[in-house]
Design brief:
The structure holds 2 protein chains of 2 kinds. Chain A has 2 helices and no strands. By secondary structure, chain A is mainly α. In chain B, strands 1-3-2-4-6-5-10-11-9-7-8 form an 11-stranded mixed sheet, with helices on both faces. The termini of chain B are close together. Classes of the chains: A mainly alpha, B alpha/beta. The A-B interface holds A 12, 15-16, 19-24, 27, 30-31, 33-35, 37-38, 40-42, 44-47, 49, 53-57, 60, 63-64 and B 210, 239, 305-306, 309-310, 312-313, 316, 320, 324, 327-328, 331, 339-340, 343-344, 346-349, 352, 354-362, 364, 393-394, 397.
């Protein structure tokens, strides 16, 4: 497990709390190792989406 | 005496109707082959011998009475163990469902049973079709029949391995990022991910709702077409199901590609880091397709990373929402590999998820624009299979997948055998088509297979064993 910066630890703790997920120490170490990869991936999703950029998941009421 | 283990579904169907072979005889041969040799590749979690013989006897009686109920009558098949089967244990390869016996069949299982197929058993998968090869789940991971030291890819790993080994003639896998096509590729068989909505997912454990597909696998694409004919069609109980007419797939297999325009995304091959061997095999396959009358042109599509980022963000969030309860309470019921992948979903916020779905909409638009200029997109499916070993968790973020884009956009795509590496492991060709145009995909795949001549090859470990005992 790599040493995580305090800001990373705080961010991960906040996200896990919001997700109502209390990992074991081993799980927490795995999550901290994965976090930089997840952050990098999420950063790449940032684009200048406009009002008309609807998500691919659209609501089709007739389906239900 | 024909070699029953490696006959295609089309050959078995002809043999049954000519009364030269019987479904019971074929089923006994396959069950004996599995009993003697599945220990080399662990492709089954459950072998349903009694059910198989009941199905075979029923089909045999129907043939004797002159009742013909269609091309799957008496044809052996396997189901990936995330597909629910009434009264038959369905574990998802997970300790969390080790004793789960569903009350109802999944829609695909029900359609195959109604079509007179012979259920041989439930095939090994990755835990909940997502965890990677693991040794801390319900059963051991499957091995590759071409070389059991290698993996058969996944997650429909057992289905791919069992078909290549001659244990089953056909099977159903599921594909969320390539899980039908990758094992088909690794095992040298054919596997189709149909268009999103073409085949019902009802009764199949979810992985990522809007990326999940169920699809047929077989030793050639003609058998894939035959099986798709039976399982395709609208199911109002699946919210993703599409109410679109199902054409006659076998009628589409004309054997030529005259007038077809093939798009080749050369940038993708570079981004994926295709090996020299794969590139050489692909160029040879392209030559074969052109000799059948097709014309190829280069096409440009969004970067593979964009498809991967969008798909992974959506899939990790959905996977977390599906399994969070198990993860929060007794996490040891899940294998470490799957647990790692699920828990990363807790790091994704709603805004990230929506960014991923908005990116996905752009990717779909770009893909369908290219399909206005070409009939098919072709590229390698994946590299030949590596050694069977635990995948490091971080590897899931590094992989550049040539299969995932078609899960993001919902287009149909097939993998077929494209020859063999110097190590004797299969190369694979991926052919993708316009939405709901599985017929053109199958037409090209079948024509290529007939011309390329790889179909006669079978894994020596299994082929020579059955020839020795014949």
């Amino acid at each position: 497990m790599s040493q995580s910066a305090p800001s990373t630890l705080a961010a991960v703790d906040a996200l896990l709390e919001i997700a109502e997920f209390s990992p074991t120490p081993d799980q927490k170490a795995e999550i901290l190792d994965a976090y930089p990869h997840v952050r990098e991936m999420l950063q790449r999703l940032k684009h200048d989406y406009g009002f008309s950029d609807e998500p691919a998941h659209v609501f089709v009421p007739m389906k239900f | 005496m024909p070699d029953l283990h490696f006959m295609t579904a089309a050959e078995l169907a002809a043999g049954y109707r000519a009364r030269s072979i019987s479904p019971v005889e074929v089923t006994h041969a396959l069950l004996d082959h599995i009993g003697a040799r599945d220990r080399f590749i662990d492709s089954f979690l459950t072998v349903t011998s009694e059910r198989a013989l009941d199905d075979a006897r029923r089909a045999e009686k129907q043939f004797m009475r002159g009742e013909d109920i269609g091309p799957m009558q008496g044809i052996p098949y396997g189901l990936k163990d995330i597909i629910e089967t009434a009264g038959i244990r369905t574990t998802g390869q997970s300790r969390s469902l080790a004793n789960h016996v569903p009350a109802q069949d999944a829609m695909v299982a029900a359609r195959l049973a109604a079509a007179g197929g012979v259920l041989i058993g439930k095939n090994t998968t990755w835990e909940f079709a997502h965890g990677g090869a693991a040794w801390d789940v319900v059963g051991p991971p499957a091995h590759n029949p071409w070389n059991p030291e290698h993996h058969p890819a996944g997650s429909s790993s057992g289905t791919g391995a069992a078909i290549a080994a001659g244990f089953i003639t056909t099977g159903i896998g599921t594909d969320t990022g390539g899980s039908v096509r990758m094992p088909a590729a690794a095992c040298g068989i054919a596997g189709l991910k149909p268009s999103y909505g073409r085949v019902s997912r009802r009764g199949i454990f979810p992985n990522s709702f809007s990326h999940d597909h169920a699809g047929p696998m077989a030793r050639n694409s003609r058998d894939v077409a035959l099986m798709l004919q039976v399982i395709a069609g609208y199911d109002p109980a699946d919210p993703g199901s599409a109410d679109i007419a199902v054409p006659d797939y076998l009628a589409a297999l004309s054997g030529h590609l005259k007038g077809m325009q093939l798009g080749v995304p050369w940038d993708w091959l570079e981004q994926a880091g295709c090996s020299d061997g794969t590139m050489a095999a692909f160029k040879e396959a392209l030559h074969v397709l052109e000799s059948l009358g097709a014309r190829s042109v280069p096409v440009t599509l969004p970067h593979l990373d964009a498809f991967s980022d969008s798909k992974k963000t959506i899939a990790m969030s959905e996977l977390f929402s599906i399994h969070a309860r198990t993860l929060r309470e007794p996490p040891e019921l899940l294998g470490a590999s799957l647990r790692h992948r699920i828990q990363c979903g807790a790091l994704i916020r709603a805004e990230d998820y929506l960014r991923a779905t908005r990116l996905r909409a752009r990717l779909c638009t770009a893909m369908q624009a290219v399909f206005k200029t070409v009939d098919l997109i072709i590229c390698p499916c994946t590299e030949p299979a590596g050694k069977l070993e635990q995948t490091p968790p971080a590897a899931m973020f590094a992989k550049k997948s040539l299969t995932t884009p078609f899960n993001s956009t919902g287009n149909p795509a097939i993998s077929v055998n494209m020859g063999f590496s110097t190590e004797g492991l299969p190369y694979s060709l991926q052919i993708a088509g316009r939405l709901f145009d599985e017929a053109s995909v199958l037409r090209a795949a079948d024509a290529y297979e007939q011309a390329a001549g790889w179909l006669a090859h079978h894994p020596a470990l299994f082929r020579e064993a059955v020839l020795d005992t014949a």
